[in-house]
């Protein structure tokens, strides 16, 4: 038996080698779920299972990449290359491209990221002459997303009177009109948003039985990591694809389900054994990641949740240090204390900066932390923050490529028709849009085909537009004959982007140029990878080698990168800053969790309902269980929000940890320690209100309001900001020194 199988414990081993039939692996954090999945795939390949019949779905592209690399080290060369491994979105985008004609989409359809989608929602709201005060683009976009993830198309929505009643109740009666217009625009632009990738896959499998059969036959083995966070649309896809052969293996932990605001359902796990009768259940109980203290502390917290599958989790590692709690008077001081603690840890504990992570509930918290780290010269990187792909010059360049690949993409055209500036103003763009709508054409088609006079474009404006349209047309034609990198360079040059930035000679323009260069490099890297893979699979006799890697292919790949995949390979030996949400599945030697205050973590918007609060608690469980060797928790007694000093109490989660696992040099005071408040007085929003659909970590008001904090406006200095009220007599904490 291979070494990697032998290194597993008996239950893990059973779960890895019994790969026929359905399996449910359910276990707490750090128990080796992902490791078992990896070993199982490697084992299957070693038993002669063909790689291209294996479909493995992960939560991020990064996780897929790591798994693939690991498997490659376990099985003979090249064997793992044709595994279908990736996120739901990337795998099903690939299938949709192959089958796009059936749904009436071009195979080169554009994928809109959440920023694109929001812009389109705004446009739809505007076109319908609705107010974006009443129809908040964020809320509308989230509601569209929710509908799609529940497989509710605009038509289905129209037929559903209770959904429409809900809209009226939420005072957005015309939501359906926006949804319809949005969907129409996507289709006209030849574009799908992220949720469409799942919705349309479902439509494809529902309406084209032969397509369903084809993929059911191809994917003989289906594996899913982080199953607790699948939403309904993803769940239905797995059930459909797996029902023929039943070789479906899912791993998950109900205690780590943290995406219910995006429609994820814990019930999917609970239902698995009904969906796949006879499914084997594996429970892993040993945590291999963390010290006993961390595992026990995390168990204390998660026990407080009512809704959960009870399971054991223990660590056989060292007991480890107690979890330190750091108190600060202000958020600024909190950051400074963390930075100095990190500095000391790295100096005295023989660890690297890259072994350290600082986790927080909302992105907005990173700013203070960044400042503190910078002032101590501690290198850091922000994971999942403003991604490379969100930078202006990159979005511009990508919009050019998108338009070249799919000239129907009006959103792309709007973005770059006058970038760099070529004297095409809003009035002209409005006329083009009008003419396009009147003639049932895309904007590019309108300017390429219609007589400028009929569009109302006189002389100079007409010429500029015609030149632009011609350039796009020519670049578009080059696609089939020009290799991706060369075409990319051509686009960057002919668009004028490179020239403009070169001319500017400012620090920003120089870094913009570097970024464009980096993007072009990524095309080259991608091309080389594809060529290597094509050569490999050719020797396995699966498909013919590709002659030319087109820019279309690269673009499809890029469009699927999510914020969480954003990681620069040079970023070694740096402290990682990230939201708790994006830390899922990862591990670090030292983990700091900042901002443990009521109304921040748990977040204010979640506290109105018991469900919301339980989700926050799971989120805290995820945070704590990322730590291998030590965890440090911190909170600030006051924090700037919306330019005002607000006061907070320590998070109830601190009081939920048995004090024997804490190193607490002070009394915690009146931290809330029960869910009763949430149960009896839903002060913030209703169950199912907007808070549950907001994105975490955006730092928006949804995460980060000020109600609930006790404000003391006009407080003169930090000294005066100290809380004067004495800790309640019932405070459950005694500092370690007091105890011993
Ligand atoms: P999470 O719920 O956080 O995703 P997980 O259950 O997927 O966690 P893994 O990430 O697979 O857990 O494993 C946690 C750590 O324990 C990893 O570093 C892994 O390599 C290690 N590990 C797992 N099983 C074993 C084992 N049998 N022997 C030694 N180390 C192990
Ligand atoms: Mg895992």
From TrEMBL:
E.C. no = 5.6.2.4
Q: Which reaction does it catalyse?
A: Couples ATP hydrolysis with the unwinding of duplex DNA by translocating in the 3'-5' direction; ATP + H2O = ADP + phosphate + H(+)
UniProt keyword Cell membrane present? no
What GO biological process terms are annotated to this protein in UniProt? Answer: recombinational repair
Where in this chain does the record put each UvrD-like helicase C-terminal domain? 292-585
**Which Gene3D superfamilies does the record match to this protein?**
1.10.10.160, P-loop containing nucleotide triphosphate hydrolases (3.40.50.300), PCRA, domain 4 (1.10.486.10)
Q: What class of enzyme is it?
A: isomerase
For bias type Low complexity, the affected ranges are 680-701
Molecular functions per Gene Ontology: 3'-5' DNA helicase activity; ATP binding; ATP hydrolysis activity; DNA binding
UniProt keywords (A-Z) are: ATP-binding, DNA-binding, Helicase, Hydrolase, Isomerase, Nucleotide-binding
The Swiss-Prot or TrEMBL record describes its family as follows: Belongs to the helicase family. UvrD subfamily.
PANTHER family the UniProt entry points to:
ATP-DEPENDENT DNA HELICASE SRS2, UVRD / RECB / PCRA DNA HELICASE FAMILY MEMBER
Question: In its UniProt entry, what is this protein called?
Answer: DNA 3'-5' helicase
Q: Which organism is it from?
A: Alistipes indistinctus YIT 12060
**What does the organism's lineage look like at the top?**
Bacteria, Pseudomonadati, Bacteroidota, Bacteroidia, Bacteroidales
């Amino acid at each position: 038996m291979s070494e990697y199988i032998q290194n597993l414990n008996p239950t893990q081993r059973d779960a890895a080698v019994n790969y026929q039939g359905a399996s449910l692996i359910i276990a707490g954090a750090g128990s080796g779920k992902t490791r078992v999945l990896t070993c199982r795939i490697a084992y299957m390949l070693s038993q002669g299972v063909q790689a291209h019949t294996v479909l493995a779905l992960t939560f991020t592209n990064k996780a897929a990449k790591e798994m693939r690399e690991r498997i490659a080290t376990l099985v003979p060369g090249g064997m793992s290359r044709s595994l279908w491994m990736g996120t739901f979105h990337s795998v099903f985008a690939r299938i949709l491209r192959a089958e796009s004609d059936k749904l009436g989409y071009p195979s080169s359809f554009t994928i809109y990221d959440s920023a694109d989608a929001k812009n389109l929602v705004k446009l739809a709201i505007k076109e319908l002459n609705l107010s974006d005060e009443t129809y908040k683009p964020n809320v509308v976009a989230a509601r569209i997303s929710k509908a799609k993830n529940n497989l509710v198309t605009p038509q289905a929505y129209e037929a559903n009177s209770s959904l429409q009643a809900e809209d009226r109740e939420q005072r957005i009666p015309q939501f359906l009109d926006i949804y319809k217009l949005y969907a129409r625009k996507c289709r006209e632009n030849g574009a799908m948003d992220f949720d469409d990738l799942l919705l349309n896959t479902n439509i494809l499998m529902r309406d084209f039985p032969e397509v369903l059969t084809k993929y059911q036959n191809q994917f003989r083995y289906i594996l899913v990591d982080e199953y607790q966070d699948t939403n309904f649309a993803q769940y239905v896809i797995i059930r459909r694809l797996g029902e023929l052969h039943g070789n479906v293996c899912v791993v998950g932990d109900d205690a780590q389900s943290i995406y219910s605001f995006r429609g994820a359902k814990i019930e999917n796990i609970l239902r698995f054994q009904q969906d796949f009768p006879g499914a084997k259940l594996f429970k892993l109980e040993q945590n291999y990641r963390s010290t006993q203290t961390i595992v026990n502390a995390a168990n204390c917290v998660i026990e407080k949740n009512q809704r959960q599958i009870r399971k054991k989790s223990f660590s056989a590692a060292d007991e480890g240090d107690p979890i330190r709690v750091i108190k600060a008077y202000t958020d600024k001081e909190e950051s400074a204390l963390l930075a100095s603690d990190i500095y000391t840890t790295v100096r005295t504990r023989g660890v690297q900066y890259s072994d350290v992570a600082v986790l927080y509930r909302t992105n907005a918290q990173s700013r203070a932390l960044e400042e503190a780290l910078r002032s101590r010269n501690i290198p850091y990187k922000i994971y999942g923050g403003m991604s490379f792909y969100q930078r202006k010059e990159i979005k511009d360049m990508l919009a050019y490529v998108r338009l070249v690949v799919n000239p129907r993409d009006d959103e792309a055209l709007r973005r770059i028709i006058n970038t760099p500036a070529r004297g095409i103003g809003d009035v002209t763009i409005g006329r083009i849009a009008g003419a396009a709508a009147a003639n049932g054409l895309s904007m590019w088609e309108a300017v390429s085909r219609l007589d400028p006079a009929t569009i109302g474009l006189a002389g100079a404006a007409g010429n500029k537009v015609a030149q632009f349209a011609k350039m796009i047309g020519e670049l578009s034609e080059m696609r089939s004959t020009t290799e991706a990198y060369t075409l990319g360079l051509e686009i960057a040059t002919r668009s004028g982007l490179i020239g403009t930035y070169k001319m500017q000679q400012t620090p920003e323009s120089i870094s913009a140029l570097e970024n464009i260069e980096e993007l072009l490099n990524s095309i080259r890297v991608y091309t080389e990878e594809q060529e290597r893979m094509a050569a490999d699979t050719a020797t396995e006799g699966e498909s013919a080698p590709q002659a030319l890697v087109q820019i279309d292919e690269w673009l499809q790949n890029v469009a699927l990168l999510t914020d969480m995949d954003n990681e620069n390979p040079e970023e070694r030996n740096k402290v990682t800053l990230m939201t708790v949400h994006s830390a899922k599945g990862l591990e670090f030697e030292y983990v700091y969790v900042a901002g443990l205050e009521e109304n921040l973590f748990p977040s204010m918007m979640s506290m109105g309902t018991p469900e919301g609060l339980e989700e926050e608690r799971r989120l805290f469980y995820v945070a704590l269980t990322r730590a291998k060797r030590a965890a440090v928790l911190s909170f600030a007694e006051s924090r700037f929000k919306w330019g005002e000093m607000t006061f907070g109490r320590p998070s109830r989660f601190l009081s939920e940890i048995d004090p024997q696992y804490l190193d607490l040099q002070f009394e915690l005071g009146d931290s809330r320690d029960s869910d009763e408040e949430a149960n009896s007085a839903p002060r913030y929003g209703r169950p199912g209100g907007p808070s549950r659909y907001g994105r975490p970590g955006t730092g928006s008001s949804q995460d980060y309001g000020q109600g609930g904090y006790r404000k003391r406006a006009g407080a003169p200095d930090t000294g005066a900001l100290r809380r004067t009220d004495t800790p309640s007599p019932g405070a459950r904490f005694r500092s370690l020194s007091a105890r011993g």
